[in-house]
C-alpha cells in the first residue's frame, strides 16, 4: 500500500504500529505500518512526528517528499537497509568497462521495447474505432524495432566512447514514440510533443508529475539493492542528478506512468492548475493515486505474476548482481 499526503494541515503521527493521519476538517485515518511500502508527501504544509518517521524507518517504509511539479526533493529511509558496499564498488568499476556500456544499452533497449508494448496495448481496439491513431501506431512500431537493431550494433570499451551515439538513438526513439502518442491523445489537449520541466500543457504537466513519483520510488529501490542512485552510465554525472535513477527508470516509464496517464486523459479527465500555474492538490492526488495503483497491478515474469513495484525490486537486484558479475540482467517488457 502507498500512502499519499496531499492536504495542507495534515499531521502524521504514530499510534502503536499504525500511522495516524489527523486533519482539523477531516475524519482521522489510520494505516497499519505492516501494510505500507511508501509514504508520499505532496504538500508543503504538513507535519510529520519524529516517532512516525522512526517507525517508518524501522518497518522499511520509505517517505518521499515531492514538489508541485512532481520532482522528489527529500527522502526519509533507514541507513541500515543499504549497508552493503561490494555492489557500489562493482558499480563504480563497471563505469570504465564494457559492463557499463551494457547497462546503458539495456536502459535504451528496455525503453524502446516497453514503448512498443504500450503502443500495441493502446492499438488493440483502435483499428476500427480510431483508424488514424491505429495507422500512426503501425508506422511507429517498425521504427522502434529498427532503432533497437541499431543499438545492438554499437560496441565500445567504456560508456564514454558511446554515450553520444546511444543518446542519439534514444532521442530518435522518443520522436517516433511521442509522435504516435500524439495521435492517441484527444485533440483538445493540443499536445505539443514531449516537454520536460517547465511544460504548461495538460498532458506534459501530468506526465512530469507522474515521472517525479516514479523517480522517488526508483531511488529507494536502487538504494535498497545496494546501488548508488547518483552514479549512472547512460546519463552523465552532475551534482544533485540521480543519473542511475534516470537510467533505470527508462524501462518503467511507459508501463508505470505513460499507461495510467494516457488512460486518464483518454477518458476525459483533465488536470487543474492554480493561479500560479501549478497543479492543484486534488490533481496531484489523482495522478499519484493513478501511478501508485498501476504499481500495485500484477504482470508476468518467468511464468509467475508479480506486482510492478516488486518487478522493479527484482530488476534492481538483477542489475546489482550483473555489476558484481553474478548473473544476467534481462530486459523486463510489460505485457500488452
From TrEMBL:
It is an enzyme of class 3 (hydrolase). Its EC number is 3.1.-.-. Homodimer, forms a heterotetramer with a Cas2 homodimer. The gene is cas1. Belongs to the CRISPR-associated endonuclease Cas1 family. NCBIfam families: cas1 (TIGR00287). GO terms for biological process: defense response to virus; maintenance of CRISPR repeat elements. CRISPR (clustered regularly interspaced short palindromic repeat), is an adaptive immune system that provides protection against mobile genetic elements (viruses, transposable elements and conjugative plasmids). CRISPR clusters contain spacers, sequences complementary to antecedent mobile elements, and target invading nucleic acids. CRISPR clusters are transcribed and processed into CRISPR RNA (crRNA). Acts as a dsDNA endonuclease. Involved in the integration of spacer DNA into the CRISPR cassette. This is CRISPR-associated endonuclease Cas1. Its cofactor is Mg(2+); Mn(2+). The lineage of its organism: Bacteria, Thermotogati, Deinococcota, Deinococci, Deinococcales. Mn(2+) binds at residues 170, 235, 250.
